[in-house]
Specification:
Layout: H1 6-14, H2 24-34, H3 39-60, H4 62-65, H5 68-71, H6 93-98, E1 114-119, E2 129-133, H7 134-150, E3 159-163, E4 183-185, E5 200-204, H8 209-219, E6 223-226, H9 228-238, E7 248-251, H10 258-268, E8 273-278, E9 282-287, E10 293-295, E11 300-305, E12 317-324, E13 335-342, E14 356-357, E15 359-363, H11 374-387, E16 396-403, E17 409-415, H12 420-433, E18 440-444, E19 459-461
Parallel strand pairs: 3-5, 3-6, 6-7, 7-8, 16-19, 17-18
Antiparallel strand pairs: 1-2, 4-5, 8-9, 9-10, 10-14, 11-12, 12-13, 13-15, 16-17
Helix pairs in contact: 1-2, 8-9, 9-10, 10-11, 11-12
């Protein structure tokens, strides 16, 4: 009999994932059921989990115990609705960096001791360190598998990974993946400890695009994971799938813009999977096939907040603020991610009932520090690129818009061949809209230096604080 119930469809899809240990299957089944809880049951469960972490933080974590808003919370509550979060202060990255020791509990429940310390890439000036308990860290692999189940990724597939060298295991001599070198593993990182999977191969993002394409042709993977800009450049370079064997792809670490998604899907027919996560929390939300980000609600709570730290209405943009529910080794309550999201409401067509948000717009940038009109000038250039036919961008490998301290703009292009049409369109749009009010220079480069984190930056400005600020 044909299945039509979303829950039954997911149960059927889960059956191809063979657990590596007897404890894995019950946990996976529990997480699957949570995706389809009735709204009332979901809110009751969230309220109990929130009460537990708030009671614990108020009692055992000196950072929270010293703050009046936390002291005002009634002690020992068994249920706390998320509306109580509105009266609590937002925790910044700088707070976590400066008060690491104060955020470590005096004691933790048995089984929740810290087992690792994660570190962010340091976009605020220095890395943000967070201690993780085993239950919190262990959710990562389950959430990756959840996303792949949603998109019907076959666990027997061969997976290719294009990432920064330090994201791959170092050799016994402490060296990371060099240009041209290949990482090989019998299973998919972070997932194979839970479920049986096919092999994985890896390649450094710093390899030239043509070398990446040759490598993909040699390896013939079914599944590709990489940065949005890397996937886009591979698709533009081939005018279709980067390799004929490719069945699915997932982008990581940076924002997959609507323009990038359109170009990739139009040229290749591949619909990139995307999740939203933080080193300080784990995987926060997964983008479903219908385009909504569903929060991993057993792991965290997400708020989209305005400048007064109040919830945004559906359709409004605001700060993405996350409260971790499972990490008792270092609780983060109302943690400001530095990212901007779009609030949403109502049921999702995919049938899942977990809380969600409409989209991730990107990282917060201190645009108020740049001259008036900066955002409009950046948008003008990106709009030109987004409106172009992907075939016209086949020689484009990477681009960056940079703003100098004197207000000048520079469009930096890395290409193989001719980008004359792109240059002409940008120049025409700029001259018609901006004119001589702000100079624009278009330059060809062999390579655009990455950000200190190693990630690609589509826009940089000398008005933004330096890493040492």
């Amino acid at each position: 009999m044909a299945l039509s119930n979303p829950l039954e469809l997911e149960r059927e899809a889960q059956r191809q994932w063979i657990a590596q240990h007897p404890t894995v299957e019950p946990m996976a089944r529990k997480l699957l059921e949570r995706e389809f809880l009735l709204p009332g049951a979901a809110l009751d469960l969230e309220a109990r989990e929130l009460a537990r972490i708030l009671n614990f933080s108020r009692s055992e974590v000196s950072w929270y115990a010293q703050q009046e808003a936390f002291l005002a919370l009634p002690a020992g509550q068994s249920s706390v609705g998320r509306e109580a979060l509105v009266d609590l202060p937002v925790l910044s990255k700088f707070d976590v960096q400066a008060h690491f020791d104060d955020l470590i509990p005096r004691r933790v429940p048995r089984g929740h001791e810290a087992v690792t310390i994660a570190s962010s890439s340091g976009t605020t000036g220095k890395p943000t360190r967070v201690a993780f308990s085993l239950p919190a860290a262990g959710m990562f692999g389950f959430h990756l598998q959840r996303q792949m189940r949603w998109f019907r990724v076959d666990p027997s597939w061969k997976k290719a990974i294009i990432r920064l060298p330090h994201n791959f295991p170092a050799t016994d001599k402490g060296k990371h993946l060099d240009l041209g070198q290949v990482f090989r593993a019998d299973g998919w990182p972070n997932v194979t400890r839970l479920f049986r999977t096919g092999p994985a191969v890896g390649f450094s993002r710093f390899n030239p695009t043509e070398d990446k394409l040759k490598w993909l042709e040699q390896e013939k993977p079914d599944y590709l994971m990489s940065f949005p800009g890397t996937l886009e450049s591979l698709v533009l370079a081939t005018g279709g799938k980067p390799v004929a064997s490719l069945k699915a792809a997932r982008t990581i670490s940076a924002t997959l813009t609507p323009g990038m998604r359109r170009r990739i899907e139009t040229a290749s027919g591949i619909h990139p999977q995307q999740n939203y996560g933080l080193n300080e929390i784990g995987i926060v939300a997964l983008r479903c096939p219908e385009g909504r980000y569903h929060v991993n609600s057993e792991h965290c709570i997400v708020e989209i907040l305005d400048r007064e730290h109040r919830p945004c209405a559906a359709g409004e943009q605001g700060q993405i603020v996350v409260t971790a529910l499972t990490n008792f080794a270092m609780p983060l309550i109302r943690y400001d991610t530095g990212d901007i999201g779009i609030a949403t409401s109502g049921a999702c067509p995919c049938g899942r009932t977990t809380p969600g948000f409409a989209d991730v717009v990107g990282r917060y940038r201190p645009m108020h520090l740049a001259p008036e009109g900066t955002a409009q000038r950046v948008q003008l250039i990106t709009d030109v690129i987004d409106e172009m036919d992907p075939k016209s961008l086949s020689d484009l490998r990477e681009y960056q818009i940079h703003q100098y301290r004197d207000g000048r703009f520079e469009l930096r292009l890395v290409s193989k061949g001719d980008c004359t049409e792109l240059k002409n369109r940008v120049r025409a749009a700029w001259d018609a809209t901006i004119g001589d009010k702000t100079p624009l220079k278009i330059v060809d480069l062999e390579r655009i230096p990455p950000a200190p984190s190693g990630k690609q930056q589509e826009f940089s400005s000398d008005f933004f604080p330096s890493r040492d600020a």
